[in-house]
Request: fold
Amino acid sequence: MRDGCWGLEHYVRVNLPCRSDLRKLRAGLDSRNLYNAVAIPNDRKQLHADRAIQCEGAVNFVKFCRNTKGTTAVEFGITAPVFMMVIFGILECGSLMWTQLGLQHGAQMAARCASINTSVCGNANDTQAYAAQQAYGLPVSSSVFTASSSSCGKQVSANYTYQFISSYFGVPSLTLTAQSCFPS
Reply:
């Protein structure tokens, strides 16, 4: 061993047990390219000729462009905002439909109660309070509903302003209406 260099024979004795591997090694390498990495100080490893021969320099653009490490993180960073917007959009649409269904159910049940059960829904205030109770767990007040008598019978209608959860995206509020009429 001279100046921190390993000879080809030592490399073969330590790392390659088979004679056929020795021929493969001699075909592609010679003893000039085999160095003891421990013998070279860290501050001089970047200037070592062996690293430049094997294209390990700092300005190897071809190797840099072919490097695929971190592509998953970049792809996730690009697609995650779109994916989250789609998920939140689905949740908002579901919440909107649930609110519309609750208003419609409350109006239908209150119109039926006003026509059939006059002891519970005897006047407009009682009908409005009953409609708010029947609105599928929505936190609406009885002032959302209006009860009246019309040509079709007892009519209950609702007007509710739905405020989207993601209002910071600039989505305006939406007015939901429901109406039901039950013959008396």
